[in-house]
Amino acid sequence: MHHSVELRDVHVRFGTIRILSGVSIEAKPCEFISIVGANGTGKTTLLKVINGTLRPFHGRVSVLGYDLSRYRSLNFLRREIGIVPQRSNSIQFPLRVEEAVLMGRYGKIGLVHRPKKEDWNKAFEIMEAVGIKPFCKKLVHELSGGEQQKVALARALAQEPLILLLDEPTTYLDHSAQSEIMEVIHTLHHQRELTTVMVSHDAQLVDQYSDKIYLLREGRSSLIKSN
Amino acid sequence: MEMNWIEILNFPFMRHALVAILFAGTAFPLIGVFIISLNLIPLRFAMMHIALLGGAIGLFFKVDPLLLGLLCCILSSMALGPLSEKMKLGVGILSGYFMTLTLALAFILIYKADIHVLEAFTILWGNILSLTILDLIIIGLISLMVLAKVFLFFKEIQAILYDREIAMGVGLPEKGFYYMIIFMLGLTIAVSMRMIGALLIDAFVLLPAMAATLISRSLKQTFFFSSLFGLLSGLAGLILSFFLDIPTSSMIILVASSIIAGCFLFKRLLPHEEKLS
């Protein structure tokens, strides 16, 4: 059985600045792994390497068994990876919650094709699961920070991904909203048999949910918890 | 002499202007929505200066300056997207670079060829009442292309205008679509320059889109109202300019600006929940 995500001795630099210098992590199918570290240690960079937005200059990245260095376009793989960014886009864009969630299905629908009833049904099903269905007609930028993060999570899950990447999804939320969204993530991780990779600066927050925790420090990774 | 608005269509130049407004008024404001959503205002300015350089090159080599201006805009709009990606600079920053560089080159050419400055600047004025059949064909084709792309690729465009990273994250070919948007923008601006003049482009491209964003609660509404306002301001501006004896471009801008003021009032006066939901 191949690992869902496997990074071996990955090095990334921007110009002359080294961001990652020898990171190795692995996540088996259905595992919840967390990567913790202080701000600026390259946690977001690591997620960008996993979804192929950034290419490392050294090391091997394998996702769902695909060696990313062998593919020029990774759109086919990104359709299997849901990503929840650190902060939702809060610009004043006229987008209703239901449209924002449906957007998660756009890659799978295919170019030119319109969303079908089945796509809408899936979007509504996930809105129900995440608890945002009551305000599905509201505009995204009219929601609170916590609600916007739930919309981002719902969009990522509407993709029906095999892998879920979470980039500090609770950073800007208060304590109760943090716990609420982590519970939702944890439940859906199990229900949908996802492989989840979450980065956070808060080791305490992720501890109870994670099968494995890696610490990222000075560009290097070390395994600090394994169930 | 008293004349009604139907009789003004007896003039061929008015008929041509009307056809141009029907096409451009409907299609070009959609480009304005792209400009506002992707914050591409510097690119619009860069295109105006690039067209001026094209005009100067044309006058230098005794070739049609308008055609050269159009050509320069098309070529640079094809190059700007990939170039900004390669140089890892935003399109806005790169536009600033090209804006100043092309202006400097244009002035050097104008000075060296001893061209009358006003002659070079004619490319910036344009005149909607002097359009030829060929101009109408070009405007029609580009308008249809813009409308078709927005209709066919609505969901891809929606994702990119909302957030390019999200568009890429869900597996859409985001780069290709972004380059397509920049290319359509360059093309539209180049043609608008011929039609209404670079300095008054906003009347067709930006102002209707600005008005639409004030009152819309979905991207479909934004596109619809942009087109509607573009068409309205174009038609009303053309007819009013004829009867009031005011330059057409200025009248179109006045109407479009009034629509923005109206939309602003509409937004302020209506309670939040009652707005076009």
Provide a descriptive summary of the structure in words.
- The complex is a heterodimer of chains A (227) and B (277).
- Chain A has helices spanning 43-50, 75-78, 97-102, 106-109, 117-130, 145-158, 175-191, 203-207; strands spanning 5-14, 17-27, 32-36, 58-63, 66-67, 81-84, 163-167, 195-200, 212-217, 220-226.
- By secondary structure, chain A is α/β, with parallel strands linked by helices.
- A six-stranded mixed β-sheet of chain A has the order 6-7-8-3-9-10, sandwiched between helices. A four-stranded antiparallel β-sheet of chain A has the order 2-1-4-5, covered by helices on one side.
- In chain A, helix 5 packs across helix 6 and helix 6 packs parallel to helix 7 (175-191).
- Chain A is globular and about 45 Å long.
- Chain B is mainly α.
- Chain B has one domain (7-274): ABC transporter involved in vitamin B12 uptake, BtuC (Orthogonal Bundle).
- In chain B, helix 1 (12-37) packs parallel to helix 6 (133-152) and helix 1 (12-37) packs antiparallel against helix 11 (219-244).
- Chain A binds chain B through residues 51, 53, 73, 75-79, 81-83, 85, 89, 93-96, 99-100, 103-109, 111-112, 114-115, 137, 139, 155, 159, and chain B through 37, 152-153, 155-156, 158-159, 161-163, 165-173, 213, 216-219, 221-222, 277.
List keywords for this structure.
heterodimer, A: 227 residues, alpha/beta, Rossmann fold, 2 domains, 6-stranded mixed β-sheet, 4-stranded antiparallel β-sheet, B: 277 residues, mainly alpha, ABC transporter involved in vitamin B12 uptake, BtuC, 12 helices, 0% strand, globular
